[in-house]
Batch of 4 targets.
Target 1
Amino acid sequence: MNRPGIHLKLRRIGIDTFKENVAYLHRDCPVYHTEGFQALAKVEVNSVKNHQQVLAVLNVVNDGGIMAIDELGLSEQAFEQLGLKDGNMVCIAHATPPESLDAVHRKIAGECLHASDYLSIIKDVVGNRYSRMEMSAFLVACSESGMEREELLYLTEAMVETGEKLDWGEPLVADKHCIGGIPGNRTTMLVVPIVAAHGMLIPKTSSRAITSPSGTADTMETLARVDLDLKDLHDIVRRERGCLAWGGRAKLAPADDILISVERPLSLDSPGQMVSSILSKKVAAGATHLLIDIPVGPTAKVRRMNDALRLRKLFEYVGDRLGLHLEVVITNGEQPIGRGIGPALEARDVIKVLENDPDAPSDLREKSLRLAGRILEFDPDVRGGQGYAIARDILETGRAMAKMQAIIGAQGVNEEPYVRGALVMEVVAPESGFVVEINNLQMARIARMAGAPMDKGAGVDLLKKMGDKVEAGEVLYLIYAEFPSDFDFAVEQTKKDIGFRIGDNPPAPRYFPPL
Amino acid sequence: MNRPGIHLKLRRIGIDTFKENVAYLHRDCPVYHTEGFQALAKVEVNSVKNHQQVLAVLNVVNDGGIMAIDELGLSEQAFEQLGLKDGNMVCIAHATPPESLDAVHRKIAGECLHASDYLSIIKDVVGNRYSRMEMSAFLVACSESGMEREELLYLTEAMVETGEKLDWGEPLVADKHCIGGIPGNRTTMLVVPIVAAHGMLIPKTSSRAITSPSGTADTMETLARVDLDLKDLHDIVRRERGCLAWGGRAKLAPADDILISVERPLSLDSPGQMVSSILSKKVAAGATHLLIDIPVGPTAKVRRMNDALRLRKLFEYVGDRLGLHLEVVITNGEQPIGRGIGPALEARDVIKVLENDPDAPSDLREKSLRLAGRILEFDPDVRGGQGYAIARDILETGRAMAKMQAIIGAQGVNEEPYVRGALVMEVVAPESGFVVEINNLQMARIARMAGAPMDKGAGVDLLKKMGDKVEAGEVLYLIYAEFPSDFDFAVEQTKKDIGFRIGDNPPAPRYFPPL
C-alpha cells in the first residue's frame, strides 16, 4: 500500500508521550490522503538515507503553528530512538503489524506459547513495535490462569535476554527483594551494611516509590546520593562490597519497565507478572543468590498464607530454572514495620538501629537481622542456623554502622540533614483498649497525602503498634507535613479512617514460619 | 491528592488523536510538579465555573511554541467534548479510575459479569472514561471462550441503551446484514429496491469499506449521495420505503465504534464481538426483522460449516432475547460474488442485474433474489416459500430498477458517471484446466492495492469463476487502476499469487442449505 518516494522533513515535536511513540502528520500533507493513513494507525518512519527506522502511532495535526505540511513530527522519545536530526529527510509508511502478534492471538485463544514465541514478543516490545493496546492485550491474555509456569520461565528469560546484563566477576552476588506493600519496612538499608561488612558482595539497586509513601531509594536519598552511573556503581561496590543505589540508570530488563507502564494504570498485578518482573531484573543485575520476602497480612499485598505459598513455589520454580540460588521467606505483614513512614522518618529508624539505640524500633531490627542472617548463610562457610548470630554481632559491634557510613561516603553524603515537616498533628485513640489492627493501606495513604515521598520530611510516625494498651485520648501517631494543603488533605483522610482499630482484648498472635 | 484551586487557561491543540482524548500540560507548569502528574496518566479536566468535565490521557509538552506554561491543552475531540472556549479557566486533577474497571478485573479473573456490570462498563466507555489500554484489557478478557452467551446479551443491550435509537413508527422494519469477507457480493443494493418495491420498510444504512476493497456505502456512492443527515434519511424512507445510505451520521450504539477502534488494530474479531456489534447497531437503527448472511468458504471469514452453525445460534440466542425477528442464512462463500471488485465495477454489476441484462452475473442475481425472498416472507401476507417468486417478479418486471432510480433520485444522483481506471492489466491462466479455487483474500488484496475503495474506478474484474474451463494464456481477470504507483503495486502482488488455482478436474460442488 506504500507509494515510496514521498519525502518529509523530520521535526522534533516537544511532546513527551512517555513509553508510547507518536508521529505527527499535518492533515493537509499529501501523504496523509494518498496513503489513506488514519489517526491512531501504526506507521513506520524511515530515514531516506540509511536504515534507521522507528515505529509510532499517528496523530493528525490541524494546526500549522505546530508543524508544516511538508514535515513529519516525532514525539521526544521517538525522535531520540530514530537518532536523526531536525530537517533530515524521512518517509512514512503503514507499519506492518509485528509478526509476534500472531503468538499473542494464540495466547488469547488459550494456547500455551513456546520459548521462541515469548522471545519474539518481548523483542518486539523492546523494539517499540507494540502499541499500549497491544501490550494490554498480551498482558491480559497472560494474566491470572492464563500462563503455565513453564511459560513464565520463558517470559522471564526473554526479558533478561533483551536487555543488558551486569557481570560482577564473582561467584556469589547476593541480593534481596521484598514484594512490598508494608509501610516502613526499610530492612534493605540494614541488611546491605551487615552483609557487606561480612564481606559478601551485595550491589543493591532499588526503585523509588511508585504507589507507596517511600521506596528504599527515596529513604536512602535523605542520607546519600543514589543516582549513580554504572561506573560509579561498580567502583563503589568493588571498594565497599555493597551499595544502596537507585536502579533506574542501568538498562536492565527494559521490557519490564515497558510492560509495567501498562500494568500499573491497568492495576494488573498477577503473581506471574510479579515473578517475571522481579526475577528478570535480578538476573540482569548479575545476582546469583537471592532472598525474596513475602509479607502476609490482611492489608498486605498477599493476604492469605495459601497465596503466599503458591507465590513462593512460583518464585522457586522459575528461580531454580534460571540458575539462581533463591530462597523465599514469608514474613508477618499485618502492620507497618518500624515507626516512621516517609523518607526522613524511616531513615531516622534505620540510623537508630545502626546506632544500637535502645529506643530503635525492635521489629525493624529483628526482621533485618533475620533477613541478613539468611543471606549470610548463602556463604558456604557459614553453618546453617548461624547467620542470625553473625548478623547480630556485626550490628552490635558497630561494624554495620561503620559500613553504612562508608557506603554513604562513597555514594556522596547528603549534606542537608533531613528534617521532619514543620506541621504536626496528633492522632489519638478514640477509646481505651488494645491496638488490634493497623491498616497498612490506610497508613500509607495518610503518609502520601501528607506529601511523602516527594516531601522528604512528610509522613507518619507511629507511637503505638499492635498489642499496645492505650487510653482514650492517648496519641497513636503523629502526622508530619511540609505544606498546609497536604497537611489538610492528610488530616481530612484520618477523619474517614484513622487506620487503627482498638479492641477490648489484645490481638491473637499469628504464627509465621521462623526465618 | 488534589490541591484544588490552580487554574489554567484552556487551549485547543490542533491535534486529532482519534478516539482517544489527550490533554497537554507544559513541563514547567507548576501543577505538573506539585501534583506529581505523569505522562500517560489519566486526568480529568474540569471547568472552573460549572460542572463540565472531560477525561483525557496526559502528554507533557516541552515546547513553549505549542502552548504556554499557564495553559491546559486539549486534543480536538476532547476540546469538543468539554464544550468550553479557548481561554476559559479550567483545573486539572488526577482522574479516579472508572469504577467499572473493578468488573473488568473480575472478568479477567474469569468471572461471569451481571447485566449491571456491562451497563456500567459500556457507560464508562461511551463517557470516554476508558483508555485504549483499558478497553483492550476488557475486550481480551471478553474474547474467545471468555463470555457466556447470556453475558453477550447483556453487553449488546448495554451498547443499545447507551446510544440513540431510531423509531420508524411501523411494526415491521426490515434489515439485512452480511458478516462480510466476500469480494463483490453487493446483494444489498438489489435486496433493498426489491423489498422496498414490495412496500416493506427497509431503511438500510451501511458502512464504508474498512479492510475490504468496497463497502455498500462506497459502491452506492458511485451512483448517489450516501452521506445523509437523519432528517433526509427519514424523509426518503417515508417516501420510497427504503434507502441505501451511509450509517456514519447517526449516533447509534456509539460504544460499538469506540470498541471497534480498539478491536481493529488488535485484529480481535471473536464471534461474540461480531454478534454484539451487529445486533446493537441494528436494534438501535430500529430494525424489527433482520436477515443475517453468513458466507462460508475456505477463504471466507467463517471457514467451516460447524463454526457457521455456532455463530448462527449465537445470533439467534441474542436476537431472540432482544425481541428481534431474526433469521440467519448460511451461504456459499468459496469465491467472490459477481464479477467486479471495487466500487464502480460492483455498481456496474448491480445495474446489469436491475436492467435484466442477460450478461448480468447470475450468482449475484440469484443470491440477491434468494435473500430478498427470505425478507419478503417476513410479511405475514406472504406464504412461506413464495418470497423468491415475488422477488423475481419484482426484478423481471422492472419495478426493482424503477425503485432503485427513485431512491437514487431521492438521495441525490451522482452526476459524474463512474469510470473504470485507465490503467488495465490482463492476468492470464498459467496453464489449461478448470478454475478450482479463487482466493477471496488475495482478490481483495489485489483490488485494494489497485486503489479500491478510494479510487472508485480501481479494482478487479473477474472474467472466469470457479468451474470454468480455461486455456493456458486465457484471461482470468483484469486489474484496473487510476494511478501508476497503485497499478505497479497490484501487478507486483499478482506475481506473488494470482489468487486463482487451475486443476485438471472441475471442483466438487459444495452443499449449502437452500435459502
Note: Chain B has four domains: 8-94, 101-161, 174-250+285-411, 423-503.
Target 2
Amino acid sequence: MTDPLRLGIAGLGTVGTGVVRIVRQKANLLAARAGRPVQIVAVSARSRDKDRGVSLSDYAWEDDPVALARRDDVDVFVELMGGHEGAAKDATEAAIAAGKDVVTANKALLAHHGHALALAAEDAGRVIRFEAAVAGGIPVVKALTEGLAGNDVTRVMGVMNGTCNYILTRMQSAGLPYAEVFEEANQLGFLEADPTLDVGGIDAGHKLALLAAIAFGVQVDFDAVELEGIEKVTIDDIRQAADMGFRIKLLGVSQMTGRGLEQRMSPCLVPADSPLGQLEGGTNMCVLEGDQVEQIVLRGPGAGMGPTASAVMGDVMDIARGVRIPVFGQPAAGLERATPARAVTPAPYYLRLGLEDKPGALAKVAAVLGEAGVSIDRMRQYGHEDISAPVLIVTHKVTRSALDAALKAMASLDVMAAEPVALRIERV
Amino acid sequence: MTDPLRLGIAGLGTVGTGVVRIVRQKANLLAARAGRPVQIVAVSARSRDKDRGVSLSDYAWEDDPVALARRDDVDVFVELMGGHEGAAKDATEAAIAAGKDVVTANKALLAHHGHALALAAEDAGRVIRFEAAVAGGIPVVKALTEGLAGNDVTRVMGVMNGTCNYILTRMQSAGLPYAEVFEEANQLGFLEADPTLDVGGIDAGHKLALLAAIAFGVQVDFDAVELEGIEKVTIDDIRQAADMGFRIKLLGVSQMTGRGLEQRMSPCLVPADSPLGQLEGGTNMCVLEGDQVEQIVLRGPGAGMGPTASAVMGDVMDIARGVRIPVFGQPAAGLERATPARAVTPAPYYLRLGLEDKPGALAKVAAVLGEAGVSIDRMRQYGHEDISAPVLIVTHKVTRSALDAALKAMASLDVMAAEPVALRIERV
C-alpha cells in the first residue's frame, strides 16, 4: 500500500484552504505517518479566482463538485461545502456511487441523511468519516467509536457550539443582556448566516445526533432531538444560577433509557466547578460516559481553520493507513431506529416565573406545582417593589412530564405575567 | 474478515479480570462493532486457583506466559503482567516471534524496550498497541497517533500518576504534611509495592516517554526523561503556590526545541484556574498541542479495573477491525534517537530557600541570583521570628541552566540552612 492517496477537495472556504495548506506543507510528515504519499489531485469551489493565499495550480479544477466526486483519479472525496441538500448531498452521493471514500465536515448533511448515506457507502464497500463535523478539532468521534469500543456507552454530553458558549459566558463576565451580546457576536462574525442554526441549538443538535447514533448503536435521527435555544436565557438567569453555584450552558445530552433514546439540546445548569461549568468562550467540550471507562472529558477548539482541518486530516490519514470502520461504528444495515423519549430521567429544574402583582399569586403557583408533584427545594424573589421581578424556584428531582403538566396548568392561571422558563439542572 | 479474533491473556490481576469480564459479557456488542467475534482462547497467571469472580473454565490454561504467547490458536497476545524485564518481556518477544499481534498495558516494558520491540514487531508485520499503558481509560495514544496525525505536535503535557495527584490535592485540601498523606495513600492501597515508582515520578515518566516518541517521531527514550518526584514538596509550598493563584502538580512536559527533545516529569506550578490546575484526586489529564489543532485536553480515570480494561479493549477492537498502524505512529526503522535537552525553554520558577538567621543572608542570596542573571519577580518571607522560615521567591523567566548556576553558587554560601527547592511555573 505505497500508492499515493489521492484527494479531491470540494469547498475551499476556511477549512478547505486549511486542508490544502497542511497537505502542501507537511508532505513528508504525512507520508512517513501514512506509509504512503497523500496528494491533492483536484479541487472545486464556487469561485476559481478568489485569492486564498495558497497555490492551487498543481490541482485540476472542477466547477462542478459532482464531476470532482466522479473523477477517476480521486480516491477520497473531501466534502467541505456544507449544507444538507443540494450540491453537498449530490456530490457525496455521486462519490459513493463512483466508489470513493468520503471525508466530510458536514454535520447537517449527516444529521439529516447520515443513515441513507452510510447504507449506500457500506453497500459499495466505502467509508464515510466525519470527525470534523463534531466539535471541531476534538477527536471525539474517534474516541467514542474506537477508543470506547469496549464500553456500553451510558451517556454522552457536549457543549458543541462555540458561539452559544461565547454568548453565555460573555453575558456573565460582562453583565450584558442577551440581545447586546448577540449583536456583538454578530459583529465579530461568530454567527452563521442564519443565526438560528447557532442560538437555536440546531448546529449543536446535529452534532449530538451523530454522537448518539454511534454511542447507542442506532440510526442517526436528528428530528428526534429536543431542541431549545439560548434566546430566552436572561442575564438574571445567569446571575441567579451563579449565585447558586451553577453556570448555564447550551448542553447536549443523550442517553438510552427504558423508554427510549433521550436526545436533548437545551440550556442547562451545571455546577460551576465542574469541567463543563468551567468552560469559557468558544471552546467545546464533550463528555463520554461508559460502563467501563466511567467518564472521559475532551476539551478543545470547536471551530477555526487549523482545528477543523486537523480533524479532516485525521480522517484522511486513517484512510491512508487503511483504517476501515463502519460509518457509525456498526454496519448501518443492522442499525435500528430508536424510540425517541423525552427527558424521562428525573432532575431538578430551575424555574423563572413572572407573576402579576396580585394577592395570592404565589400561593396559586405553589398549589399548581404541588398538584403536579413538583416539590420546591429553594425559592427566591428579589425586589418585591418591582412587580415584574420574577420568582425563582429550584425544584427537587422531577420528571419532565410532571414539570410540563405543572407549567401547562400554570398557563391557565390569571396571575402569570410572562411565559415561565424552565432549565434543567444536569448532573455532570 | 469474519473469523473470530482469538485472544491469549497473560496476567489476571485487576485489569486482566476486567478484560475477561468485558469479553464474556459483551460478546454480541463486540461482534457487532468489530464485524467478527472476539474470543478468549487461553489465559495465564501466577495462581490458577485464586477466585477472580469470573469463570475461566472455557479457556485453556498455561502456567507459562511464553507458552501462551506461542499458542497456534492465539491471534493477539494480551500482556497484563507488568514489569519491564523477565516474564513480560520474554513472553512479548515470543509472541512477536510467533507472529502474534500484542496488546499491552505495560508502560515500563515499552518505556525501556519499546523501540526494540517495535522494530521486531514491524519486521514481522505485527502491531503492538498500548493505549492502557498511558493514562488509564483516556484514549490519548489514539488521539495523538491518529486523531492529530495532520499536526506537527508542539508540546505534550500530562498529569498521569493518580497517586501523586491524590497526595498533592489531599495535602492541600486537608492541610496535611506530605509524610502523613503518603502514609494515608499507602493504607488505601494507592501506592505501588515500590512507592518510588509513583512518588519518584518514574511511572509517569514512562508514560511521558511513550507520548513523546509518538508526538515527535523519535525513538522512545525513557533514560532521557528528567525525573523529579514529589517527595520534597511541602505543605508550605502548596499553600504559598495557592496564595499566588497556582496549584502544584506532578506534570510531564515534552517539547522539541532547537537544542533537542525536552522530556521532564517534575512538580510544577500551574494556574489554579486552568484545566490542569483544577484537576483533583486520582484523575489523569493529558494536554496535546499541535500547530493545527491548538490545544486538546483529555481528562479521565488513570487507573482501575473498568477504565484500564476499556483501554485494552479499545486496542483489541482496533485489531479486530483490521486497524494496523505502526507502534509509534511511524515505522520504527525510520525513527531516530533524539538529542536529549534539559529544559531550555525559559520559564519563571518558584524557589524555596532555607536561610540561616544571619545578618546579610538574604543579601548574599540576592547577589548570587543577580550574578547568574536570575531576576526576582516576587519575594516573601513569613514569620521572621522563626529562623527556619524559608524565603519564597518567584523569578522572572529564566533558563534552567542559569537557575542551576545560581543554585550551585548558593550551595557554597555560608547562609544556607536547607537545600533549596526550585519548581518550574509551567505555561499551560
Note: The two ends of chain B are 45 Å apart (CA to CA).
Target 3
Amino acid sequence: MQTAETSTNPTDAAVDLGPATALSCRECGHRVPLGPVFACEECFGPLEIAYDFSDYDAEELRKRIEAGPANIWRYAPLLPVPADVATKPNINPGWTKLVQADNLARELGVTGGLYVKDDSGNPTHSFKDRVVAQAIEAARAFGFTTLSCSSTGNLAGAVGAAAARAGFRSCVFIPHDLEQGKVVMAAVYGGELVGIEGNYDDVNRFCSELIGDPAGEGWGFVNVNLRPYYAEGSKTLAYEICEQLGWRLPDQIVVPIASGSQLTKIDKGLKELIELGLVEDRPYKIFGAQAEGCSPVSTAYKAGHDVVRPQKPNTIAKSLAIGNPADGPYVLDIARRTGGAVEDVTDEQVVDAIKLLARTEGIFAETAGGVTVGVTRKLIENGVLDPSLTTVVLNTGDGLKTLDAVAGTGLTATIRPNLDSFREAGLA
Amino acid sequence: MQTAETSTNPTDAAVDLGPATALSCRECGHRVPLGPVFACEECFGPLEIAYDFSDYDAEELRKRIEAGPANIWRYAPLLPVPADVATKPNINPGWTKLVQADNLARELGVTGGLYVKDDSGNPTHSFKDRVVAQAIEAARAFGFTTLSCSSTGNLAGAVGAAAARAGFRSCVFIPHDLEQGKVVMAAVYGGELVGIEGNYDDVNRFCSELIGDPAGEGWGFVNVNLRPYYAEGSKTLAYEICEQLGWRLPDQIVVPIASGSQLTKIDKGLKELIELGLVEDRPYKIFGAQAEGCSPVSTAYKAGHDVVRPQKPNTIAKSLAIGNPADGPYVLDIARRTGGAVEDVTDEQVVDAIKLLARTEGIFAETAGGVTVGVTRKLIENGVLDPSLTTVVLNTGDGLKTLDAVAGTGLTATIRPNLDSFREAGLA
C-alpha cells in the first residue's frame, strides 16, 4: 500500500490528519473524504474540515496544550495535522505576543482592557505563516512535492520560507511588474518565482488553469486546492488570544477583512473552545475592519444587505485589497449574530492609526494593522464598541513591508554637531 | 526618601536591580555602587555588573525560570532588574526560536547538530531589543525620563519602540543623510529623531559632549551611561540557547563581532550557568565572525596579537561595521581560551550565505547573519570548526532591514498567462 508520504496520486493517499475526519460543505453539509479539494461536488459551496473532538476531556486537553511547544502546534489536537506534527520540519509560527496596550487604551479611552495580538512576530512577519504552515502539513499528507500560490506580497514570502524549511519545491506566481522590494522578499528563499505578464486577476486565472492541467499534478496551491486546511490556521489566533487571556474569551475582537476567511475562522475557533469547555460560554462580539478604498463587506453591512457587491480596490492597505471577498456573506452573518459590526476607515486614517500604535505601544504595523486600529478608534467614537469591555485588536503584519505608507515620517530636527545648535533647536 | 521611580537625581536613587549588587571594573576590580556610570574612576576600565547569586539552589532556579514568561524576563533572577520586572511596561524581547537547521547542516556537512538562534523574531527584529529592554529597566531605576542613543540602524528602532511602550521620551541621534527607509523605521515610533550634520563619528562625539552637559541631565544613553546594564541583555542569548537545548551547553557557538560586547556577554552567561549548576561543566568553544571589510579582531587573531588595530569599515554588513571595537581584546582572550577562533568573510560570501540560509531554512537574515553563516561554512572548510559537534550559529537581525544586500535576487522566469508559455519556460 502506498503511504501518504510517498504517494504521487493525492486522492488515493491514506492520510493521517489527526482529529480531522472529513471535508464538509459549509452550504449543504455534504461530506467527502479528506483530500485536496475545496468545492462541494453537490452545490459548489466551500468545503471545511470536520473534526472528531468527542474523546477530549477539557482539563486533560488544557494541560496537554499548556505543555506543548511555543507555537501553533500546541493546538495540534484541534487542527488537521498528525499528532507528531511538531517533530516535522515546518516554519512553526504562532504563540505571538498578546500585548497589553495600556498606552493605546488611555488614548482611546478604553477602560476594560485593550490588547493587541501582534502577528508581526511570526517567522516571515505576517499571520500568513499560520495558514501556510497548515497547508504544508496537508501537502505532506497528500504527497504533494511542489507548493504554489498566487500572491502580491505576504503570502509569497510565507510560502517560499515554509517550503524551504519543509523540503518542498516552491513555485510562486506574481504579476511581473511588482515592486522590486517585494520581489526580493519573495525571491530570497530560492524557489521558483514566476512573473506573469498581466495583473493579479490574470495571475489567478492562470493558476486555476494550471490546477486543472496535468502540468499542475503534484502541486499544492495553498489557497486553492489546499484551502480547507490552509484556512484552519486562522483558528489558532482565537485559541492563542483566549489562552493568553487566561483561558477567557475577549468581550470584543476587531479583525481585518480581506477574503473574510480569517474572521470566520476566528469565530469557529472561539466556538470550539466553548464547546470543548476550555472557556466559559458567554457572549463575544466580532467586529470586521476594512479600508474605505476596498470596503465591500462594510458597505453591505451598513446597507443591511446579505449579499456583498464586488468593488475595484483602491487603497494603501494592499494586503486587504480583495474586491470580491469569498467569505463576505459569512462575515456579515457573524458580525450580526454576535452583535459586532463592520466598519471602514480612509487611507489617511490608516496612516494615522499606524503612527498611533507605534507611538503608544512601540508596535510598527503593516497597513492592515492601521485598518484595525483605525476602525477600533472609529467604532469607539461612534459608540459602537464598548470601551468598558475587554477588547482585542489584531495586527496581522509588519510595517517593514509597507514602509511607503509612512514614508512622510522623518527627522524631527537637523542640527550641527554641537551643543549650541542642540539648544537652538529647542531640544534641551 | 526619594524612590527610584520618582527621583530626578539618578545618583541619589535607591535602586532595586534584583541580584545586581555593584559595578565592578573589568580591568582592576574596583567596585562602585550601582549607578549610571560606565568607566572605572581608578583605571578607566569598563564597568560590569556584579551579582549576588549565592542564595540560589540550582533545581529551584531552573523550575522558576521554566515557569517564567516566554521572554527574557524568565531570567530575571540572573539580570540587573527587579523581581517584578515582567509586570512593568517594556518591549519584552527574547525567547526567540532556536531552529534545528537540518537542511543547512546537510549542505555544510555538519553531523553533530546545527542550530540557528534566530533573533529576527524579536519585537523590532534584531537582538538590540534584548539590550535596550535592559537599559529601559536601568533608566527606570535611576529616574531617567529621556532615553537616547546614537545609531545608524537597528538600535534607533529598538530604542524608539521600547521608549514608546515603557513611557519614556526618546531622542535618537543619527547622521542627517541616512537612507530614507532607515529614517522611517526609526521615526515611526514618534520620538525625537535628530539628524546631525556630519558622519557617525560626529554623532558619537556630540553625544559624549551632551552627556557631560547640564542639557543631558536626566538622559539615559543606552549604550553609554547605561552601558553596563544594557550589555547584560546579551547574556540572555546564552541562557536561551542552553535552555532550548535542554539545559545543555552547545559544543561550538558562532557569534558576530561589532563592538565585541555580545560575544563577551555570551561567554559570561555560559560561565554563570555552569557556576550555578544549571548545565554540566564541560568545554565549549566560541567563534567570532566579522566581515572582511571590517575585520580588526579577525586580523589581530590571525596575527597572534593581543591588541586590536582600528580599521576604516567598508562592508555591506553595516550593523557590524565598528572599526575600533571596544571589547576586541576580550574577544581575542575568549576565542583563544575556549579553543575557538575569529574569522572573516567577503561581502560576496556574506550575500551567498544569506541566500544559503534562506534557501535551506526559510530564514531571511540581515547581513550580520550572512557573516555568521558564511564564517561557519569557512571554518568547517578550513577544518577549524568540528562538524561532528553540536554547533549554534547566531542570526541577530532581519533581512527586511538590509534588502539592498540581495537586491540582485529576482524573478526566475517571466511568462504570459497561459499553459503554453508555462511549458515553454520549462516549469512543468
Note: Chain B has 14 helices and 14 strands.
Target 4
Amino acid sequence: MQRYFVEPEAIQGQTVTITGDDVKHIVRVLRMEAGERVIVCDGIGHAFCVELTDLGQDRVLGQIVEQLTDQVETAVKITLAQGLPKGDKMDMIVQKGTEVGISRFIPLEMARCIVQYDQKKEQKRRERWQKIAKEAAEQAHRTLVPSVAVGMTFERLMNSLDGFDLVIVPYEGEKARGLREVLSERPDVEQICMVIGPEGGITEKEIATALAMGAIPVTLGSRILRTETAGLVAAACICYQFGEMGG
Amino acid sequence: MQRYFVEPEAIQGQTVTITGDDVKHIVRVLRMEAGERVIVCDGIGHAFCVELTDLGQDRVLGQIVEQLTDQVETAVKITLAQGLPKGDKMDMIVQKGTEVGISRFIPLEMARCIVQYDQKKEQKRRERWQKIAKEAAEQAHRTLVPSVAVGMTFERLMNSLDGFDLVIVPYEGEKARGLREVLSERPDVEQICMVIGPEGGITEKEIATALAMGAIPVTLGSRILRTETAGLVAAACICYQFGEMGG
C-alpha cells in the first residue's frame, strides 16, 4: 500500500488531511479514488491505514481505518554526527542512513572539513536533506522521519552530549578497541551518537577533546572506510547488535 | 604510505615492476624519487613495503624491503550476487562493497531486472566495475582486489552454488528468520553467498528455486532496504558477526 507522511497536526480525531506534493501524487500520478486505502504516518512513530474519502486538487481527506502496530523503529536511537563531506555525499548519507535506521543527523563542522559550513546556504541544504530523509523513510516503511539538525561545530557537539548514553568515534588511529566490544559491554544503551570524521579524518586534537568528554574511539576493523560509508556501516552493526537487523 | 596494486607476475624475487596509470601517479602526480617507499599489493592477498629504485616514464622499479603481515582480509569470504540495478548503482555497490570487505561480485540477471543484461556491453562494464574494485581496494587498504565475475542468470547461479557453505537471500517476504539467527547457527562458514534482488525484488518463483537449491531466505529487519543498500548492509553485519568489524 502507498505510504505518506503528514504533520502530526494533519490528524484530527479519525480524519486525516493530506496536503502538498502528495496530493498531486495521489490524484494525478496514481489517480486514486474515494474508497481506496493508503498508509499515513505522522512522522513521530505512528502509522495508520486510511481510507480516502474526498480527493481535491489541493487536499485529500481520509478516515482512519486502523492504527498499525508493526514495530518498524529501532528501540535504540542512533544519531549520526557527520563531519561535512564534499559534494553531494551528504545526500547519500542521509538517504542510506535513513534506510538503515538512523534517527537523527547532525552536519558537523570539523577541523579537516574541506567544505566550509555556509550559514547562508544552510537553510536550503537542510531543507534538501530533510526532504531526502522523508522520502527515504517512506520508501523504507519507517514511521519516523529522521530529523536533520542545524549544523554545528565539533566543539559545540562535544558540549552537548548529555542526552546520549554512549558516544562512539570510529577512528583510524584506534587499533585495540572494537565496536563490538564496546556495544557488548553496554546492552542497556538507548541513545547512541556516532561521530564520523570528514574525508581527511579526525584530528588528534579532536580525539583528545572527544575522550575528555567521555566519547569512546573505536576501530571498525582493518579496512579503511570512506567517510560516507563509515556511518552507514556502523549503524548497520549497531542495529545488528541490538537485534534490529532481523533478530 | 601510498598503495598500489600490481599483477602477481610483476613481482619477481625482490624486484617489483609497476606499469600503467600508476607510473604517471608516482612520477608526475606525486613526483616521487628513488629511495622513497610505497606499499605494493599483488591483489591476491600479499602486501609489501617497496623502496623505489628506478623511475621511468613507462615503468617504475622497486625493491621489496619487507612483507607486511597485517591481517586486512576477512577470514570469511563474502560473494555478492547482485540483481542488476538501474543506472550506475552497480558502481556504488562495487565501491562500497569493496570497502566493507566483499571478495567477489556477480552481476545477476533476474526476473524483475529493469535493465536487461547486454552481452555486447558486458565486457566494457565489467572492466569498469573491476577498475572501481581495484581503486576502492587501494583506498580501503585491502590486499585483495575483489573480482567482478561475468554476469550470469539467476538459474545458472543456482546451479553453481557448490563452492559456498551458506547462501542467504534477503527477502521482504521472509518475516521469521533473521540474518543473525542464521549466522549464529553457522560459526564455521568460510564462503558465504548473498543473493540480492533488483529494484523490483525477488519473485516467488526465484525464492522457490533458491529454497530448492538450499539457499536460506532471511529478513534484514522491518525497514525496507533499497537494492543498492541491502548487500552492503548485510556484508557489514556478516563482518560484524565474525569479528571482522573491529572485534
Note: Helices of chain B lie at 21-29, 89-100, 119-139, 154-158, 179-185, 204-212, 227-241.
